[in-house]
Write a structure and sequence with these properties.
Largest sheet: 6 strands, mixed
Strand content: 25-35%
Strand order of the largest sheet: 4-3-7-6-5-9
Shape: globular
Length: 532
């Protein structure tokens, strides 16, 4: 428009926003856009040529000679009689796509950095077409609008940068909240990729063989973000570590439930660890995780101690906390030996009482004389194809999570595939101890001592004749992906630059030439160099 118009703390006189939850307010009183960008838009999207031009993106000020690279957070600018201050970039909503009937535009505006910026009004006054914009003061020359915009979409944004940006008092409050959320997420990821001290705040026997350990961060900070189905890695000393599924995600602690295996790591946990002790813990980790965005029917199938991760899933699926979608129905199928071996009796009974719509089916393979069908269990035997078909087929498209011995998960997955109903998604847990795995052919002897070099991390470490390469990396906080820890998923694959790797048991995951799996691998040569 031509002529002058008044600008106050809420923006220009007569300018109104339909949705004040995400638009307008003192920190977003006036939206400015670089006039020069319209040449780029016309070139890139010529099909909208008739719409491009000053005001096309809803800006209050079309500015000639200024763009995001030379406008900074906190800049104080005089235009006409007003004094303005730069507060944040624009992050467009779906209405931009509606305006042009083109779903590509909101994302492209941010990716290209042609986002524009917002002002708050420090001094009210009038602005007229042709008024000169004068930079009165620059507070943060390192924080251009373009840098702030790019940081907001960077998946590997530097934590220090996020913290510094959030600390700028002139930054718009709603943008600060987004930056702080991103910083917290980055901190959570960093904590999940390094061992931390946790205090054992509770110990409870689920059965004679399974014991639960409640773990809370020893530093008093909040528990790390965990998704039902994930696991924690618990370390003893500096070399031996094992993964255990999270069976409870509570507000103040995470719980793992561990089956005693004679002579193993789990026996040490059962015999030596008590309330008040501290454990070195990594995680939560793992790709076996409940899809909390789906309302499809949910089926949880487990055998033996495989019940632990699906317990966390069941608790989440029957808790509507506003942050997840409740499934249309929940079916819980579990097989164990008998009532003496049945874990989580109390929480299962409680969930059944509070949620009568949850369908439970418990099968005992070797019932006790005192066990009664209809009271302690629903059927006798092992989970088989007929039971799976009876539970799953009537549901149609659904999400199925399976945890138990490897052969059990393979059988259940095959049986569900044989049902032939489209839309059934099957997810299985992969990690497990090396016991039961096929020993590596002619298992070669490992050297008493080896030098392992993690090239990218610039670490040279000595390794003795026990433990895996993954455990060595984790003990020294060398960043490495891992999931199953049993040679199945392939997440811990690394390129071998020089030297040779042997295996405690034959990996299931396929490997390319020159690759090695760290979870079950060890050095065959006295010197081994890995691309990590």
């Amino acid at each position: 428009m031509s002529g002058a118009i008044e600008a106050g703390v809420s923006g220009f006189t007569g300018d109104e926003q339909a949705d004040l939850r995400v638009h307008g307010g003192p920190d977003m009183a006036i939206y400015a856009y670089a006039l020069s960008h319209y040449r780029d838009w016309t070139t890139e999207f010529p099909e909208h040529a008739g719409l491009w031009g000053a005001g096309a993106l809803g800006e209050n000020l079309a500015m000639d000679g200024w763009d995001e690279t030379d406008v900074c957070i906190g800049d104080i600018v005089q235009i006409g009689q007003t004094l303005l201050q730069v507060t944040r970039p624009r992050k467009p909503c779906f209405k931009l796509a509606l305006r042009f009937n083109d779903l590509r535009l909101p994302r492209r505006l941010v990716e290209a950095g042609r986002c524009g910026w917002y002002y708050r009004v420090l001094k009210s006054g009038s602005i007229a077409t042709g008024d000169e914009a004068i930079l009165v003061r620059r507070l943060y020359p390192d924080w251009s609008i373009r840098r702030v915009n790019d940081l907001s979409i960077a998946p590997d944004a530097d934590l220090a940068d996020l913290r510094q940006l959030a600390g700028l008092p002139e930054l718009a409050g709603n943008w600060r909240a987004q930056v702080l959320a991103a910083a917290l997420a980055r901190e959570a990821v960093a904590k999940q990729n390094a061992f931390r001290e946790f205090t054992v705040v509770g110990v409870r026997d689920e059965t004679a063989q399974i014991r639960s350990f409640e773990l809370a961060p020893a530093d008093g900070s909040g528990i790390p973000v965990a998704v039902p189905g994930q696991h924690l890695v618990v370390r003893s000393g500096q070399s031996t570590s094992r993964p255990y599924s999270i069976s409870v995600i509570a507000a103040t602690h995470l719980q793992i439930s561990v089956k005693r295996e004679t002579g193993g790591f789990s026996e040490w946990l059962h015999d030596s660890v008590k309330a008040g002790d501290r454990l070195s813990v990594l995680g939560p980790r793992g790709s076996f995780r409940l899809d909390t965005s789906s309302d499809a029917p949910l089926v949880l199938i487990s055998a033996g101690v495989g019940i632990t991760p699906v317990m966390a899933m069941l608790q989440a699926a029957t808790t509507n906390n506003g942050a997840r979608i409740v499934p249309a129905s929940v079916s819980f199928v579990h097989c164990t030996r008998n009532s003496d071996h049945q874990a989580f009796k109390a929480p299962l009974s409680d969930i059944g009482a509070r949620h009568p719509s949850v369908r439970f089916h418990t099968r005992f393979s070797r019932p006790l004389a005192t066990d009664r069908i209809g009271v302690t269990h629903d059927s006798v035997g092992r989970i088989n194809k007929d039971l799976i078909r009876k539970i799953v087929a009537p549901l149609g498209a659904c999400n199925v999570y399976v945890c138990g011995p490897l052969a059990f998960m393979s059988d259940v997955s095959r049986w569900i595939n044989d049902i032939g109903v489209p839309g059934i998604r099957v997810m299985t847990e992969l990690f497990g101890p090396a016991a039961g795995k096929t020993p590596a052919a002619g298992r070669p002897r490992r050297p008493q001592h080896s030098r392992v070099v993690f090239a990218r991390s610039e670490r040279s470490l000595q390794m003795n004749s026990i433990g895996s390469l993954l455990e060595l990396a984790e003990a020294e906080n060398v960043p490495v992906n891992s999931d199953c820890r049993s040679g199945v998923c392939g997440a811990c694959v690394a390129k071998v630059i020089s030297g040779e790797v042997g295996y405690e048991f034959e990996p299931v995951a396929a490997l390319a030439e020159g690759e090695a799996l760290l979870c079950c691998g060890f050095p065959l040569t006295e010197d081994l160099v890995l691309d990590l």
